[in-house]
Write a structure and sequence with these properties.
This protein is α+β, with helices and mostly antiparallel strands. 24% of the residues lie in helices and 26% in strands. Strands 6-5-4-1-7 form a five-stranded mixed beta sheet. It has a two-stranded antiparallel ribbon with strand order 2-3. A two-stranded antiparallel sheet has the order 8-9. Bound molecules: zinc ion.
């Protein structure tokens, strides 16, 4: 799931819990500025916000920054997202940056939630080696080798060569 935050109009602020001089949206703001202006502070459900993987910051109806959410901090009765901007080459960034708000809502809430199809590749799922860990990849780091080694041990008498010969005999090499 993703959280979408729509920036309001530019306004200067004093005593901001995030140490900012201004919040809101202005023309040609950088992604860094948009994230700083948008990541807080909001009245939001902390548990819900912490479970989001990505944040889209929207200004004037268009996505102006995309961040990966790493956590949520509390500031009195409000919260701020912690995270890192993602950039070109990231599927969520490439799909939404500069495009219309993909999660428009009728209620005019600045903070809303929704799912984005591009997030599927990042969903948390059980490691495929069967260890019981959760990961946003098919395997927890290094566990693909553990899974392969288990199969070599169980089915090929511990011989990697026997596995390779079996693969080659069942899947003829493409012509080189
Ligand atoms: Zn594993």
């Amino acid at each position: 799931m993703a959280v979408r935050i729509a920036l309001g109009d530019y306004q200067s602020v004093a005593g901001d819990p995030l140490g900012r001089d201004y919040i809101g949206c202005f023309p040609r703001m950088t992604e860094e500025e948009a994230w700083r202006a948008g990541r807080g502070v909001w009245k939001m459900n902390r548990t819900r916000a912490s479970s989001e993987r990505f944040a889209l910051i929207v200004g004037h109806g268009k996505v102006v920054a995309v961040a990966q959410v790493k956590g949520v901090t509390k500031h009195d009765d409000r919260h701020a997202l912690e995270g890192d901007l993602v950039s070109a080459g990231h599927p969520v960034y490439d799909a939404y940056i500069g495009r219309p708000d993909p999660l428009p809502n009728q209620s005019q809430n600045r903070v809303t939630y929704g799912s984005l199809p591009e997030e599927d590749a990042f969903r948390i799922r059980p490691c495929a080696c069967g260890c019981g860990e959760a990961s946003d990849r098919d395997f927890a780091p290094g566990h693909e080798f553990r899974a392969i080694q288990a199969r070599i041990r169980d089915h090929f008498s511990g011989s990697p060569l026997a596995l390779i010969q079996w693969i080659d005999s069942n899947h003829p090499q493409p012509a080189r």
